[in-house]
Amino acid sequence: MAAQMNGCDDVGTGEVDRRQLQTAEHPSAASPEEGGVPAFLWFPDAPSKPARLLPPLALAYIGDAVFEVAVRQHVMARPNLRPHHLHVQATKYVSAKAQAQLLSLLEPQLTEEEKDVVRRGRNAKSGTIPKNADVMEYRHATAFECLVGYLYYTGAHERLRSLIDEGFEDLESTRQSSEPQR
C-alpha cells in the first residue's frame, strides 16, 4: 500500500505509476481517480516518465508523429485534395531542411525551458546518418521534433499550436519572398 501511495508499483520494482507522474506534471491532467487518462493526451497511454526526464530522441520520436498530423491537417485545409498533391505539399514541411528552417524561424520566440529542450534534442546522438540532409540540418530537425514532443507531453497544446501555426506562416512567407518573380 505504501509503495502505491509513493507512486511505485505494488510489486516493489521501483517503476513509477505513469498516471501519477503525468498528472503531477500538468495541472489540467485527469487524476487517477477520474479514470487515470491524462486529459491533454490524445490517447490514454502516458509516457513512462515525465516529459522533462524522457530522452531527447524519445521526445523527437513522438514529436515527429505529432508534427506529421499537424502538417497533414494543414495541407488538408487547402483546396486541392488529390493524394499525390497532398503528399508533395506535406513533404515541403516534414523534410529535415524544412524542420531546421522552422526551428530557426521560431527560436527567437522560445522560452529558456524550450531552448533547453531544443539544445538537448540538437545534441542527442541518433546514430543515424541522414540520406537527404546534411548533419546539421538533421540535428536541428531532431531538435524541432524534440520540442514538439516535449510540448505535446507537457500538455502545452496551445503553445504547440501557436508555434506550429506561426512557423507555417513564416515558412510560407519566406518561400514566397525567395521565389523568382515571373
Automatic annotation (TrEMBL):
Active site per UniProt: 64
Gene3D superfamilies referenced in this protein's UniProt entry, alphabetically: Ribonuclease III domain (1.10.1520.10)
Entry-linked InterPro entries: Mini3_fam, RNase_III_dom, RNase_III_sf
Keywords: Cytoplasm, Endonuclease, Hydrolase, Magnesium, Nuclease, Ribosome biogenesis, RNA-binding, rRNA processing, rRNA-binding
Chief location bin: cytoplasm
Boundaries of every RNase III domain copy: 19-173
SMART domains to which the protein is assigned, alphabetical: RIBOc (SM00535)
Family to which this protein belongs: Belongs to the MrnC RNase family.
Name this protein carries in UniProt: Mini-ribonuclease 3
Gene name as annotated: mrnC
